[in-house]
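Budget justification, computational time. The allocation requested in the original proposal was used primarily to generate structure tokens for proteins on the priority list. As evidence of use, we reproduce two of the resulting records. The first is shown immediately below.
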Amino acid sequence: MPRWAIPLLAIDGDAATLWHTFYSGQQGQLCCSASFSNHRPRSSCRSAVFGYLPRSGSEGVRSNGNIAGYEFAVSDNGSDWQTVKTGTLAYAEVATVWTDLGRDITARYVRLTETSAVNGREFGCCAEFNLSADTVAVPPLRHSPLLK
């Protein structure tokens, strides 16, 4: 597996590395997801928001694989998933986008699934993915080239 195809690169704390789906072999289907566990037996993590940092490629926020549509799901066993939130990420610059989950969530596993990309291509990527139990103040969006 190529180094960039490893989902753990999205949670390594280094914005210079990123997880990216394969660049070929997926024509006609967008199925990009990354699942993470807290790796503590019989333990769960609590979160109220998730953060997504898009890649900073040559096209800025419209770079290959940056997520537009998403589904956020949780599981206690890694098999049975419950969708917590779906939506569209709106961002005008390459910076972490925080999404309020609407309630505190406690689960051992979390999964972020891309349902659409900002540039319409069939790739997915993530420079960094974060969870937080704290409420994050989100500044009002001034202008986004993704909103029409």
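The second record produced under the same allocation is shown here.
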Amino acid sequence: MFIKIFFGLICASCVRKISDKTVSFSCTKTGDNVVEKLDYRELVQEIINRHAHEQSEKDMETTEIIFDLERDRYLLLYVGWRDEERIYGCPIHIDIKDGKIWIQRDFTEAGLAHQLVELGVPSSDIVLGFRAPYVRQFTGFAVV
């Protein structure tokens, strides 16, 4: 049985090890080692795309995905009208600054930081930008 992790296939019996910004896999059957460097841009885009496509087909008409690769800003927006009601909201806003992922806004149920950690991003590379700087030291994630 094979599973897809990031952009490669590994057998399901492989062991996953995470250190700094790399993910390494050691296959227990063949002994082969595979090391992949995490691409924060691709991970953030993957998460935002996943959240955008969880919407109903009707809501997809108001969903906008914005990836500013030059400035490393990534947003999920809802913009439009539903009958006479204006729709505008930004449930996800993520920046990448100085090699760290800054979560500026997170209105997801699962929590973006925990999703990133599950994908292999070290908590020391995740900043909860929506929290006051003095509170960040208590979150288990990066302060700056």
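A brief technical remark on that second record: Residues 100 and 125 are 5 Å apart (CA to CA).
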